[in-house]
Design a protein that fits this description.
Number of strands: 26
Distance between the termini: 51 Å
CATH topology of the largest domain: Jelly Rolls
Strand content: 35-45%
Shape: globular
């Protein structure tokens, strides 16, 4: 990487930014409520090499959406909430630095707070052949004041064998787990999850066709249950189903570069961009056998030196809880390069994108209109057996769960 700095190359640098063209100091654009504004329209071939962004009014990192369209395609190849694109889930601001993204809260007191001011930077490379159109979509009911730099360079001829960056955001609220009452790492949670059941039931990070390579993701959790959310194995299938998958991991914390749970640190290629024990709303609920924590976590893993290459298709998944028994809120942002511009998922409506909040007593505020569960995991015989075994062995938990359901 550093040896590239010594090479003298062709290319014309350029920048789109929010600078005040009158010569004054009001260097921001207003993005009207319910509108989309083109931030940059670049004629290629070229690449976007760096972005800096800052929302200073109407700050809502899930209502502001980044939208990128390559080469006059009829659809975007990046369509993602602003905060999640830069690694921040649930509208939470926290300073961290990775190789591809960095965030700096503008004031210390803004750390681990929702929708506070922050500097957002991206160094992820975005080449294109003919044209790049970058938009900010304001899905909120208030105007947004937006500062930005989009730094790029253009070339006389397109570089060979370069892919188009794609970015897709997914959410399950809640994930359709089969037994949220069962605590992680107990005998009842330790079911067999393999073959087609794993293929069908795991949380889906990315599923796309074509030729390219997957370079990683971030994932955010709203931990309703309160026990350890990350016991699930990552499983990645390349160019179709087989068992075992081409890449099979050992647990969520391992995939995100940590061990025995997630730690609060963020590194160049992996780590926590928001750490659960520092997150803005959390509570302790103590059960007879275990103290458990509820809160928010955002984690990331980037395959810089080891991208997962595919020629026909790829499916990137991870269990949520071992065997997919948990029912927390889960969302993810996947990043990959594809040989051709590809359509990504249309975003969920705003009400189905917003974070799940807690009241002053620490109870989760469940809005039925905000729910989005694409798949309820069907119970097999082993799941039914383990649910009954748990209920028989933990009657006090059934009572407490019923009481908490009445509070929601």
């Amino acid at each position: 990487m550093l040896d590239e700095l010594t090479k003298i190359k062709g290319g014309k640098p350029g920048r789109f930014s929010s600078w005040n063209t009158t010569g004054g100091n009001d260097d921001a654009w207003w993005i009207p409520a319910g509108k989309s504004v083109v931030l940059a329209d670049i004629t290629g071939p070229g690449k976007i090499a760096h972005m800096w962004m800052h929302l200073s009014h109407g700050t809502d990192y899930r209502a502001a959406m980044l939208k990128f369209t390559w080469d006059d395609a009829d659809y975007p190849s990046i369509y993602c909430p602003l905060g999640d694109f830069f690694g921040l889930g649930n509208n939470i601001v926290h300073s961290y630095e990775s190789m591809l993204f960095s965030v700096t809260a503008t004031k210390e007191q803004f750390e681990n707070k929702m929708n506070k001011h922050a500097s957002l930077q991206s160094y992820i490379q975005m080449p294109f052949n003919k044209r790049a159109v970058v938009e900010l979509v304001n899905d909120s009911a208030v105007d947004m004041r937006f500062f930005f730099y989009i730094d790029y360079e253009t070339y006389k001829t397109a570089p060979e064998s370069t892919g188009y960056l794609h970015c897709e955001w997914r959410r399950e609220n809640p994930f359709g787990g089969w037994a949220d009452e069962i605590i992680v790492n107990t005998p009842e949670a330790n079911i067999a999850n393999k073959e087609r059941e794993a293929w069908d039931n795991n949380y889906l990070i990315l599923e796309t066709k074509g030729r390219g390579h997957y370079i990683g993701c971030n994932m955010s959790i709203t931990n309703f249950q309160g026990s350890w959310w990350g016991e699930g194995d990552d499983m990645i299938w390349v160019d179709g189903y087989k068992w075992p998958p081409d890449l099979h991991g050992t647990g969520s914390e391992e995939y995100f570069g940590h061990a025995q749970g997630m730690q609060k640190h963020g590194y160049l290629r992996h780590g926590s961009s928001v750490f659960e024990q520092d997150s803005p709303t959390q509570r302790m609920r103590v059960l007879p056998w275990q103290a458990m924590r509820s809160g928010y976590q955002s984690s990331y893993s980037f395959h810089i030196e080891n991208p997962v290459r595919f020629n026909k298709e790829i499916k990137v998944t991870i269990e949520h809880g071992h065997g997919n028994h948990l029912r927390n809120e889960v969302c993810s942002t996947a990043y990959w390069y594809a040989e051709e511009p590809t359509k990504v998922l249309d975003p969920l409506p705003l009400e189905k994108r917003m974070p799940v909040l807690q009241d002053n007593n620490g109870n989760w505020i469940i809005d039925e209109k905000a729910k989005h569960t694409s798949r309820e995991i069907p119970l097999n015989d082993e799941m039914k057996k383990m649910k009954k075994q748990w209920a028989d062995n933990h009657p006090e938990e059934q009572t407490q769960n019923a009481e908490e359901e009445n509070l929601m």
